[in-house]
Design a protein that fits this description.
By secondary structure, the protein is of the alpha+beta class. The protein has one domain: Beta-lactamase, CATH 3.40.710. 31% of the residues lie in helices and 14% in strands. It is built from 13 helices and 13 strands. The strands form three sheets. The chain has an eight-stranded antiparallel β-sheet with strand order 1-3-2-13-12-11-10-9, sandwiched between helices. The chain has a three-stranded antiparallel β-sheet with strand order 4-6-5. A two-stranded antiparallel sheet has the order 7-8. The radius of gyration is 20 Å and the shape is globular.
Length: 405
Amino acid sequence: MSIISGYCDPNFLEIEDIFLKSIESNHETGASVAIEYQGKLIVDLFGGHTDAAKKNPWNENTLVNVFSVTKGVTAACVAMLIDQGKLDVNSKVSQYWPEYACNGKENTKVMDFLCHRSNNFAFRNGIPVDSWQNWDTFTKALAEQKPFGEPGSSQGYHALTFGWLVGEIVKRVDGRDVGTFFKEEIADPFNINFKIGLSDEDLVNCADMLMFDNDNTKSSFFSTIKYVPDFLLPRQIKNLKKSLIDEHFKLAFQKRRGDDKNNVNSIDWRKAQIPSANGHGTSAGLAKLYGILSTGCERNGYKLMSPETLRHSYQPHSTGPDSVLFGSDISFGIGFEIAGEEVPKGNFAPRFMGSMFGHAGIGGAVAFGDAKKEIGFSFLCNEMHPPKDLYKTVNLLIDSLYSKI
C-alpha cells in the first residue's frame, strides 16, 4: 500500500514529492494537503497515520483538529454577517452583548475582538474547570472579568478567548452558534468537510493530535534578555523583552487545571464549539472554502458575500507589536491572519506573504486564500513539532507552490 494517496496535477509534482518525503522521513505522522487554483482542485493528497502507534491509516475522510486555523473559518462567517448588514464591527460590544460592559470593558468595540485588541486574551482566574460544551460558563467569565489592559490600546493574541468572544457576538446577532451558522450557510451548500463541534458519528474519523509539551520561554536567551537595558536593544527585541516580563504568552496559552496535553483528543473537547481552536476538517474542505473566497465568493450559483466585503476583511486592521506573541509584528484583518511587511524567515512561523489571508494553527496546520492569485490552500497534520520546525513542511509546500504560479 502506498504511503500517500490522492491526486496531484503533473505540473505540481514537486509538491507531491515534498509531501511524500515529510511522511517517509517520519517528520509527519499523518497529514493532508489540498490546493485549488483558479477554481480547479490541483492537489488533494493525504497519507501517514492517525495515531502514534501508526496502526490506523489517514484517509480522505480523516478529520483533524486544526486549532487556530478555526479562526479563519470563523472570520468568514463574520464577513457574511457584515455583508448581510447584521453586524457593524465598529460598534461597541455592548450594543450586542450588554452584560460585557463592565469592569473597564465598556468601550470595547467588536473590532477589538476580531483584531485581538480587546486585552481580554486570557481568563484571570484560570480557564473554568467545566465541560468544554458549557458555552455560557466561558462567556460569563470573560464578560464579568477585568481586562488585562485598556481595550483597543494594544494587540495581544486571543489564542482561546477569541472563540467565545467572537462566537457570542455571532450568537447575539444571528441567533445561531458559529458551528451551526457555518454548517448551514457554508458547509452544506458547498459540501465542505469542516465542522466546529463534532457529532458522535464524526468521532470515528478523528486523528489523534500528538502534542509537543515544552515551555520555550525557559531557554537561556529568553531568560537573559529580560535583564538587558532597553537602550541597548533594537525595537523588536525590546518588544520581545516586554512580552516576556508581562508573561502574556503564558496567560493566553494557559493550561486548564487538571488537563494534560491529550485533553485535545477528549470527546468533550471534540464535541464542544470553540470557534478559535477546535475546528476539525479535511484539507480538501478548507482548500475549497478558500478557493471559493479567492475566486469571487460564489460557486454553482450560490454566493457567500460580495468580494468587496471580503476584501475589506483581509486588509490590515492591526499590525502589532503583539504582547502575547513575543512582541512580533503579526498582522490581522477582520479575524483573518494576513501577511505582514516582512516574510518570516525560518520555520517558527508560517510563510504568509503577498495577498494571503487565512490562519495558522499551533499544531502546524495552515489554510489560506489568495484572491490575486486565485488560490485556496490547506495543509493539516496531527503532530505538533518544536518551534524551530513547527511549520517546516507547510513552508516547503508554500514555497514550491508560489515558485510555479
